[in-house]
Specification:
The complex is a heterodimer of chains A (116) and B (111). Helix content of chain A is 0%, strand content 47%. With 116 residues, chain A is mainly beta. In chain A, the strands form two sheets. In chain A, strands 2, 4, 5, 6, 9, 10 and 11 form a seven-stranded mixed sheet that branches. Chain A has a four-stranded antiparallel sheet with strand order 1-3-8-7, with no helix packed on it. In chain A, strand 7 and strand 8 form a beta hairpin. The mean pLDDT of chain A is 92. By secondary structure, chain B is mainly beta. In chain B, the strands form two sheets. Chain B has a five-stranded mixed sheet with strand order 1-9-8-3-4, with no helix packed on it. A four-stranded antiparallel sheet of chain B has the order 2-7-6-5, with no helix packed on it. Classes of the chains: A mainly beta (116), B mainly beta (111).
Chain lengths: 116, 111
């Protein structure tokens, strides 16, 4: 199993440009997440999905959109990039189990995005 | 979800046990204690979790106090590759979307 993979690994954008980050998992997980991590800080949740066709806002959703058309993929879009969105973006996935069983998140390697 | 308090940094000699403390005095009865670590520039990695009892796996041991207000992650024989930021997280059983990553403890393992 490849686990959680992210594409691309690095990207440089100019202010106002758009792009899509792709996250893929091969563990048949129900839940998927997008986080951002700024230098010296912990991870902050942007958006998440609890199943195919569903998405929800996390702690810092402004300026981002997401889609979960297939169970194994979770896309993060930046419609008009801003320098404040310069960060490292991590995708994660986890399984949902019957109530009483805690789920464990598995993370991808990250995408390093710079917006000039 | 409960907040956690961790020391910002710790040192440990290679080959010795690393004991990382975490305070979670407002933890609720249905909240688990999770530990993750993040090696430089990589995605966080799950280590261990527990509810009430002490837990052990191939990576570490988790000791939770009887009143559940604090816990300790133990790496029994730290190596240089264990140098990382360690995050202590408390949250309810399901829903990774409730995982809140704080600043964590930066562990330096020295030769």
């Amino acid at each position: 199993n490849a686990g959680v993979t992210q594409t691309p690994k690095f990207r440089v954008l100019k202010t106002g440009q758009s792009m899509t980050l792709l996250c893929a998992q091969d563990m048949n997980h129900e839940y998927m997440y997008w986080y951002r991590q700024d230098p010296g800080m912990g991870l902050r949740l942007i958006h998440y999905s609890v199943g195919e066709g569903t998405t929800a806002k996390g702690e810092v959703p402004d300026g981002y959109n997401v889609s979960r058309l297939k169970k194994q993929n979770f896309l993060l879009g930046l419609e008009s990039a801003a320098p404040s969105q310069t960060s490292v973006y991590f995708c994660a996935s986890s399984y949902s189990e019957p109530a009483g069983t805690p789920d464990t998140q598995y993370f991808g390697p990250g995408t390093r995005l710079t917006v000039l | 979800d409960a907040k956690t308090t961790q020391p910002p940094s710790m040192d440990c000699a290679e080959g010795r046990a690393a004991n990382l403390p975490c305070n979670h005095s407002t933890i609720s009865g249905n909240e688990y204690v999770y530990w993750y670590r993040q090696i430089h520039s990589q995605g966080p990695q799950y280590i261990i979790h527990g509810l009430k009892n002490n837990e052990t796996n191939e990576m570490a041991s988790l000791i939770i106090t009887e009143d559940r207000k604090s816990s300790t992650l133990i790496l029994p024989h730290a190596t240089l590759r264990d140098t990382a930021v360690y995050y202590c997280i408390v949250r309810v059983e399901t829903g990774g979307f409730k995982t809140i990553f704080g600043a964590g403890t930066r562990l330096f393992v020295k030769a």
